[in-house]
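Below is a concrete protein record.
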Amino acid sequence: MPVSLATVNRLNLEWESVAESRFPSGRFADRTAAEVLRLIPGQPDEVLLDLVRQTQAGCRLAARVVVQTLLGKLVTMAVADRRLSIDELLAAVWVRMADYPVDRRPRSIVANLVLDARKDVLAEQRGLRSVPLPESRDQSATAHAVIEAATSLGLIDTTSRAILATVYDEGLPSVDAARRHGTTSTAVRWRCSRDVRRLASHAHEIWSLIA
């Protein structure tokens, strides 16, 4: 599918508005987003690892610097492979950043994020991630019970718990869920798809807590 120039233009315009925003704390305290971006070519893994850690701690400015770093590669990938949408690749990157294993994969972070995003988009298109929530054999396992059991087992984090509850327990559409949780509907769909597949693969453990 053609690359959405509207998305690319929007992100570049957005970058112009946030480039001079300063990091409030951490390693890059008082540096602007643009200054941190310029550090990446000289020490990519070291800087990106810290940015991903800050992203996972809730710093959206750190996440935005990572996205700006990857944008050119994602556009090139989408141009080269018409199966890939820049919007879907971006959403997949946001989800991957939230759970990136910084201790286990501290090297080749750009390649890892980009290739993992590509893999996720193609898997979604094949339907490999469209797995329903486990259904109770005695109807006692509500979506709430499943989500709480998954949380206690460490299968999902607090962000996923909140989003899954909004979508599956409350029944809100992805657009409304995105508005509530400060993200996009595409990212909500990606997170739900990924986490539901994880829950389904651990159905036996979940049942043991619900039964």
